[in-house]
Amino acid sequence: MQKASLLFSSNSLAPLPCTSRRPLVPPFRRFLASPCAQLSLTRSQSCRFAALSPPLRCNATGSVKRQEMASQDAQEGQDGRVARIASAIRVIPDFPKPGIMFQDITTLLLDTKAFRDTIDLFVERYKDKDISVVAGIEARGFIFGPPIALAIGAKFVPMRKPNKLPGEVISEEYSLEYGTDTMEMHVGAVQAGERALVIDDLIATGGTLCAALRLLERVGVHVVECACVIELPELKGRDRLGDKPLFVLVNAA
Amino acid sequence: MSTYRDEDPRIHGIKTKIRVVPNFPKQGIMFQDITTLLLDPKAFKDTIDLFVERYKGKNISVVAGIEARGFIFGPPIALAIGAKFVPLRKPRKLPGEVISEEYILEYGRDCLEMHVGAVEPGERALVVDDLIATGGTLCAAMNLLERVGAEVIECACVIELPELKGRGRLNGKPLYVLVEYQ
Fold first, then answer.
1. Entry pTM
2. Which chain A residue's Cα is nearest to B78?
3. What CATH code would you report for B58-180?
């Protein structure tokens, strides 16, 4: 699977300790339920989401060898966590405008185990990789970035809309569907040669992540990977990142 | 119960990491910049630890964080104490059904929103932001939570500007801060 190989082929990270050839966390493809307006937030949220496609490991079940059972259990643990994370995300139709199926992570934040698992999955991937910077994109990147940064011992750098950061900044303009926007980072927040992650809740077209990448690279930082909870693969944001690796937990079809 | 922790040795390290930027966003304002605190992993961790030590084991099930800098401090606290995190946002950012609370600014008004159903009646909640100035935003946040029947146990901020008397504007609710800026 094309995307599986991309997850695994990053040459800027040491190979992850896993005896299986499958990626550590398979992108979890999920199909959208019929639109539900006025969703109430109750504990039993799974009913709002359509059947989930089976995780990748099930495709190999018929021919799993005995010595792969240990990694199979590990894989099951990963898939279980990702399944719960995927089902905790709420889809809001026609927000912010008609035709857009908005991926709402606020319901994930209400599920303490799923939120904890989300952070753990990123931390497991990035700890001991000499990452000294986690850059988070305003505003939902501020929710996921700091817990990751704290757990891996990195600093957290907020990437903000214009005129929010109080000190001297550098700016990067990027394209929107209509018009442009600007992202800013503090001068001196990062040093040349540092290794960085860029975090946001979701990648759509990749424009915002690209701007964040450029800001960091302009000051000589090596961006090791971009990491998001959700990817919208149809919008081809991954391609827009070029050779920069992207790691996500959930694909939203 | 002390209202701020100046006796803990970690406080000094936190205070020295906060950068003051004069005349931002406008003339006369000495802006308290916490981004420099976030660049020091130990100081950032100490900040979170001080809050977590205070609130864990207190049956707090909700940490509400005020957009946007409350999103930086709230989630790590929530994760550590096993509470859910509820973002309180500027208008039209939250995609689902919301309740809104208007509040007064120096010039004009603003509005804070919370998702319907995020918090249930009887839940015990914290409100977290990086700084309390006049207390207007924190007040709006508390009102949102109380309107849905939650009990606000305390407001928690990294920094207080005591001259602006925000502490007295919290309807008698306690305020806990790490650092005062005079």
1. 0.84
2. A112
3. 3.40.50.2020
